[in-house]
């Protein structure tokens, strides 16, 4: 996945000022940055959901030249606050992830149902299959949104704050699952993340976005530093190097 000079204007303002970003096949890149930096906009521009100028290509193809169905087989995205349709069961919602494979006017195949069942098991959602979405807790819903994206079996997974509603156990479970899929199936992963320690623990590379510009890019220890965080988040933190990556600890103001 590559962007070159990606520029987005919304509501009369420039939100992304020409972003250059490459995510290699099989790589996990975390986009970090303060609120309003343009992280979600960048994911939306990569999938063609917001109008952008410059280059956005997925595995060598210009995203704006791809048909919707074709794009949905290549890239799956979980937005920050997906619409929760009333009256739809978990099973039917996750089955929507198979839409790009189901012929027009056709029905899902047994193979589609197998994929959905496997994803439900992997995300511990099997017991929820017949529940309607509005009855689920925030964390259960977040796993259902991810399940739908995984059911899409796309090569590129874009996740906007994928674990914001999850307890620490489910955070680990979901991120470990994404990491396993990356290792086993060569999935390419681009996530936005506010938890810098988690970003550093899972991502191969971290890209710091501020004011719609890439201000740093590198390995987690290169980017997640006390001075970088002070400058761009106006936060006082201590960064402790561990073998799992930098651990970011906020310092309470005296
Ligand atoms: N449709 C829009 N019209 C006007 N401004 C917009 C629009 N969409 C986003 N913005 C602005 O663009 C900026 C970047 O928003 P974006 O959601 O990409 O930031 P973010 O880095 O994901 O933030 P957060 O960490 O708070 O989720 C924000 O200032 C936001 O208000």
TrEMBL record:
Q: What Pfam families does this protein's entry cite?
A: ABC_tran
Q: Where is the ABC transporter domain?
A: 1-236
Q: Which residues form the signal peptide?
A: none
Q: Which UniProt keywords apply?
A: ATP-binding, Nucleotide-binding, Translocase, Transport
Q: Name one GO molecular function term.
A: ATP binding
The record's annotation in Gene3D superfamilies points to: P-loop containing nucleotide triphosphate hydrolases
> What SMART domains does the entry give?
AAA
The cross-references to InterPro entries, in alphabetical order and at most eight, read: AAA+_ATPase, ABC_transporter-like_ATP-bd, ABC_transporter-like_CS, P-loop_NTPase
Any idea what this protein is called?
ABC transporter ATP-binding protein
- Species of provenance: Lentzea alba
């Amino acid at each position: 996945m590559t962007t070159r000079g990606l520029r987005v204007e919304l509501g009369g303002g420039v939100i992304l000022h020409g972003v250059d970003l490459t995510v290699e096949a099989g790589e996990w890149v975390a986009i970090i940055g303060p609120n309003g930096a343009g992280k979600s906009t960048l994911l939306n521009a990569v999938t063609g959901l917001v109008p952008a100028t410059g280059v956005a290509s997925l595995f060598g193809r210009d995203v704006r030249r791809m048909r919707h169905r074709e794009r949905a087989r290549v890239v799956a995205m979980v937005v920050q606050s997906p619409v929760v349709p009333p009256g739809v069961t978990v099973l039917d919602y996750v089955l929507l992830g198979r839409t790009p494979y189901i012929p027009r006017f056709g029905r899902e195949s047994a193979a589609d149902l197998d994929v959905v069942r496997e994803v439900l098991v992997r995300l511990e959602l099997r017991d929820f299959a017949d529940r309607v979405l509005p009855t689920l807790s925030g964390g259960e819903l977040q796993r259902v949104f991810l399940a739908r994206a995984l059911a899409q079996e796309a090569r590129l997974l874009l996740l906007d704050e994928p674990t914001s509603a999850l307890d620490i156990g489910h955070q680990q479970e979901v991120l470990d699952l994404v990491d396993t899929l990356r290792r086993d199936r060569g999935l390419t992963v681009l996530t936005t993340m506010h938890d810098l320690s988690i970003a550093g623990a899972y991502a191969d590379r971290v890209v710091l976005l501020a004011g719609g510009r890439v201000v740093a890019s590198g390995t987690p220890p290169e980017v997640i530093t006390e001075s970088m965080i002070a400058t761009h988040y106006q936060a006082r933190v201590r960064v402790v190097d561990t073998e799992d990556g930098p651990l970011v600890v906020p310092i309470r103001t005296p």
